[in-house]
Design brief:
Elements (H helix, E strand, L loop, with lengths): L1 H8 L14 H11 L11 E6 L2 H10 L5 H4 L2 E7 L3 H15 L5 H14 L6 H24 L3 E5 L4 H8 L6 E9 L16 H4 L4
Antiparallel strand pairs: 1-2, 2-4, 3-4
């Protein structure tokens, strides 16, 4: 299957072609595909800031320990776990359940109540974990989508989260699990052999 091949070929690259510019349509397609990721109760607690102007990439690079790929990539996605998504999205999620016949209105209201209570208050640690966990699913889908469309990516957790929030106007209670640089692989650059991966015998067990 093509999905398996995409997983096998995806690499985190450090060498982007700085002259290559992705189109609005290409970026939108990646985001729309990424949004097909699963999420708890279908709440979809993710937001994205796409950074691509030279000025804003320069500002982001200063928040990301001066990593060159932030400026060299065509775009960098700031992945945000939206801790307010339960309150913001549940009405639409419940309405969709009714519209598509998954539930009647009474059951949909019950789903809203259950989900609203399960994840705690927006400023709770449980809510932050919920938002980060689901945003991580979105982020992996984004990288696979980009790879499938012929681009390369690099997920990044080397950054000052507070500085990014201040620079890009992100609410302090939200979480930023990662940045993802996206673009075209630099001509003439080469990738070394893939770094080792532990065998499933090391990290998995059967019961």
């Amino acid at each position: 299957m093509e999905a398996i091949q995409t997983i096998l070929t995806r690499r985190s690259v450090n060498f982007f072609d700085p002259s290559f510019k992705m189109s609005d349509n290409e970026i939108t397609e990646i985001l729309e595909l990424a949004a097909l990721a699963p999420s708890s109760y279908n709440i979809q607690p993710w937001e994205v800031i796409t950074v691509r102007s030279p000025e804003r990439k320069k500002a982001l690079r200063a928040c990301a320990f001066n990593q060159p790929k932030v400026e060299e990539a065509s775009a960098v996605f700031i992945i945000i776990g939206n801790t307010d998504a339960v309150e913001e999205n549940l009405d639409a999620v419940a309405a969709d359940l009714v519209e598509k016949g998954y539930a009647d209105e009474k059951t949909a209201e019950s789903v809203k109540k259950t989900a609203g209570g399960f994840y705690g208050a927006p400023d709770s640690e449980r809510r932050k974990v919920f938002a980060a966990r689901n945003a991580g699913l979105f982020a992996m889908n984004l990288m696979i989508a980009a790879e499938g469309l012929g681009f390369v990516t690099h997920p990044m957790d080397g950054f000052d989260e507070d500085k990014i929030k201040e620079e890009f106007g992100i609410k302090s209670g939200k979480v930023i699990p990662m940045l993802i640089a996206v673009g075209r692989f630099k001509d003439g650059a080469s990738l070394p052999d893939r770094k080792m991966r532990f065998s499933s015998e090391r990290f998995a067990k059967f019961e």
